[in-house]
Fold pyridoxal kinase.
Amino acid sequence: MALTKENVPETKVLAIASHVCYGFVGNTMATFVMQSLGCEVAAINTVHFSNHTGYCQVKGTKTSAEDIRNLYEGLTQSYLTDFDVLLSGYAPSAAAVEAVGDIAQDLQRRAEGKPGSFFWALDPVMGDLGRLYVAEDVVPAYKKAVRHADLILPNQFETETLSGIKIANTTDLANAITSIHKTYGVPHIIVTSVQLSSLGSSTPSGLMTVIGSTVRSDGTPRLFRVDIPALECNFNGTGDMFAALTVARLREAIFAAGPSLRNTKSWVSPDDVAPTDLPLAKSTEKVLSSMHSVLLKTMESREAELATTANTIDATGLTEEQLQFREHLRRTKAAEVRVIRNVDFLRKPTVVFKAQQWAE
Amino acid sequence: MALTKENVPETKVLAIASHVCYGFVGNTMATFVMQSLGCEVAAINTVHFSNHTGYCQVKGTKTSAEDIRNLYEGLTQSYLTDFDVLLSGYAPSAAAVEAVGDIAQDLQRRAEGKPGSFFWALDPVMGDLGRLYVAEDVVPAYKKAVRHADLILPNQFETETLSGIKIANTTDLANAITSIHKTYGVPHIIVTSVQLSSLGSSTPSGLMTVIGSTVRSDGTPRLFRVDIPALECNFNGTGDMFAALTVARLREAIFAAGPSLRNTKSWVSPDDVAPTDLPLAKSTEKVLSSMHSVLLKTMESREAELATTANTIDATGLTEEQLQFREHLRRTKAAEVRVIRNVDFLRKPTVVFKAQQWAE
């Protein structure tokens, strides 16, 4: 029995993000995705919600910053902190972001003298599509935390928020990434899902682009892009899937590059490595290929579920508004990402999307 | 790409049990195990602990009965209750056990008119080895709840507690199972890990036995046994692994038996089905074969980890007692069950342990 060939190198991850009972976002998504690629995952859950907020109604509780710190103390007192990677996502308050930052720095201190033995991937969850969906004091908390991260995965709005640069065209986007490298000293950046056509690029409008960069020793970015077809569906949790897959695949790519890079602080490749040869670029190719397959399968399952559940809503006594909301719930449920039964696409992606150098 | 051949039939599970950040017990074990066999799992976590209690120290919080009810209300208000199975484990108070019982009965009401469309597997976590480790009022709460369950998975102590029969020999054990079938109307019972040799049986002392039964229409048990070699290691979470694997494999065996059984209340086989031909017996064979392989691999990994971490404890300034506790922590960590990298043994067990009829 071939037991490990589809696994990434042994990786112990501390994952700090939200938990939902039903569906797949936050740690509920990230834990399964990383586990299915062979990573050991310890999860500190920052919220305990019944479902994701895309349903527009939710029940449950948020974890206080104190409880987050307390759980981490539980790990340290029993010597359970042998993590290779911290992946942090949604934190429900500025104090919670600070707690996560302190945990990251504690793990960094424990790894001192062993460069490359610990890596922090930070998803600075603040908002999307021009709108902040966290409290305003979360922004300065992230601006402090990001200085200690090895990799951040902001979307376009979060890139604007961190860089202070409003992104109206592709030059702005490149400048924002350069600025984040310089201002915060973050060595790896991936800007998830940018629509370049809306930024005046000649890229066809049916494509979404992921832009990544690993900094050079002189502070300049090494920019690459990977284009994928945009899908006509509003999924939740895809950012969390992207981040989780990136942790596993980046670690795999770093190991493939040999022991020297793995023992380098923040896994920053030598300056002569071209943008498209970066481990981050290789990892992004695999990540997006996995995701595209899983999301296509999700769309198929969604169509099937919507057909099965059509006309199942009893409209008796419902107002038009109530009926529309029931329909919204039905469609949101049908669009839950189908990771469980499509795990082979996570484990064995066929790489169809390739990284290209990006210079604007 | 063969995507689904290792999956059990589509199964949506609501899992209510404890969550630990580090290691594998409760829902942290059960969720991954069921997901890896292809089940969709919605998890309501009854505690949020840093680690399992085998470490003898733990930090974290317990979920109140009110919060458990509230999370379930979150699911119902968004129509997210299409569960085929409820698997319930540790609940931290009598009120929490009652909340779980109410959730089970609500799901049963929703399934009314569709026999077999919902199944409750209940692990009545109360104690072990002659000792109660929950508050005393949890016992009557379980005695009420068990009446609504389709399958229970007590250990020997819990079997004694529920039946009121002190088990000193194999006849007592058989009587206790018969009594639980009759008193509580529970159709399926599995008593996990009994040492028959200690009950005066001629079974060699190196064997552990699982005893199961599905009731006949006249209330008599159909008893079967599966023997496995006892392992010289104290693992945590094996009961949760057993329960989670049983949910998936029982469902598979029920589907294999054809549509009639699947549409029968509580999936109780016709009286002419022999004990060793019961879906519960077939499922237990697969479950124990998976578990034995995973635990053997865990013992190998444990030895390797203990060798690597030998002499890593700095004894300076530690009392003998403190040093012993550090050693306890080191050994407990090394014995965490290695499910992640041994997932193929979960997915594709080679059945080596066979069910035998058991009549004492």
Observations:
- The two ends of chain A are 49 Å apart (CA to CA).
